[in-house]
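User: Okay, second chain of the day. Same drill as before: sequence in, structure tokens out.
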Amino acid sequence: MKKRVITGIIYVIVLIGLVAMKWLVPDGWGALGFDALFTAVSVIGCIELLKALKEEGLPFKAIAISFCAVIVPLYAAAEIASGQGWLAALICAVVYAIILTVFHFTFGDKEGKGTMNALFAAGYCGVLCCLLTAVNHLQNSTPAIILLFLAVALTDCLAFFTGLMFKKWLPYRIAPKISPNKTIVGCVGGVIGGIAGAILTYFIYYGLSALSIETVDEVTKLVSTFKVDGLMLVWFVLIGFIASVAGQAGDLFESYIKRKSGIKDMGKILPGHGGVLDRFDSMLFAGVVVLLGFILIAL
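Assistant: Same drill. Structure tokens below.
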């Protein structure tokens, strides 16, 4: 628990620093911090996943890891340079598919195990991390990133503590064969946490973005005149709700992979937490929801 708390504190400090960098550094360059983080998650997560899948074929491991190392920074660079990140990512995926097909026939992968593992790793780690980077480069990316991290973090925290508090009276499990410790009441608590994260994001972002004041009187005036956009707040709550459900589904999905692979954690890089995928599994799924939600907001 001590290691878990220390790692968690470092994690929070890093995230606060990245958000501050994104918020304060002009011309979109502040987004590079999160781009670097998502690239690291893509590459390290791919390595962890291939190890869990017991993929021994070096060519297939090499091509999958290479794809995960390229697609995220390629998307970010193309998006910053020309706003064509999606096109760059699509071209990267097509090239990867062609190379993987060549590998499949060249190395005699008759059973298709290496090909399927490489394809799965590329999609689960590379493509989903690319979508996280897409969140980072949205027109309204700062509140999107804040909501993503807050909703996922509060979902995890409230799911854990709600399950711990009420497990004795409400022991009903949501998926006993996949993750015996996860209860229905814990999942409900997690959804409440996701909604709370979305509401908190709304007031943090729209409150601080209006904060161009220098005196105490101006602070008082800002607080007294701050108006809530009810429709926008409801939309944030909806995104937080669905993102929380998606995040918990992502957690269960990885629990299934670990159970099938016969392992407890994906890695040991984060003391007390396990591997990178153990920390970001929920975010990979929640990121899809946040991306779609904020794209619709911008329409």
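The chain has a mean pLDDT of 87.

User: Thanks, on to the next one.
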